[in-house]
Amino acid sequence: MKLDRRRSQILGQMGIAIWKSRLPSDNDLTQGDLNIEDEIEQIEEPISNEVVPRQFANLEEIASAVRSCRLCQLSHERKNAVPGTGNPTAEWMFVGEAPGQDEDLQGKPFVGRSGQLLNSMFAALGLTRDQVFIANVIKCRPPRNRDPSDDEVFQCTPYLKAQIAMIQPRVIVALGRISARLLLDAHEKTPISELRGDVHTYEKTGIPLVVTYHPAYLLRSPDQKRVAWQDLLLARSQMK
Ligand code: URA
User: Fold this and answer.
1) pLDDT (tens digit per residue) in 112-123
2) 85 CB under 6 A from ligand 1?
3) Closest ligand 1 atom to Cα of 137
């Protein structure tokens, strides 16, 4: 059964993921397509067209659902899924875009060069990684670090939304345009320069949300670090 896009969006906003069948339709099969490995895989992994409510008891349950997720193609190419790490009662939540190569290898967010800069940003705020929670919009690495597709974002978003709902941070910092557009439900072409500089609210939660540049962009454009620092101060002002 095909779910129309609008219904899918509404379900997604409610934190409900759609499980798509990975079985090709009979018409798509050519003789010899189904080998024995396929059959074994089909038996071992539940395949369903059902809508599965994503209700989780805690962050570890979300992480383990992410690690066994097969909702999009990226899951077949990853070395490790990267659910997110940090303090389950964090007051600060930082949301990046997607794991890169280092993160894919280690299964942890922001452990490469961007992560080193992010650590410095935390230090400037008087924070350590243990105090904050770090997550990404997409939990598996897109090949060659390309932008995630609409479908990948759509399938992965319920995990991030469940993490935010569980942690209930006092402030969210969206790192870069992909994260900012998703969390603010902004048009895909809205430039990040239009989204940063203001205190937004995440959905209807009342949680303040501040947008800043992605650390990878700041590594390429160090002159923007001053502006990013203003964004972080704006986020900090929400803690009073
Ligand atoms: N860039 C991101 O957006 N997230 C990571 O975890 C690493 C790099």
Assistant:
1) 999 999 999 999
2) no
3) 3
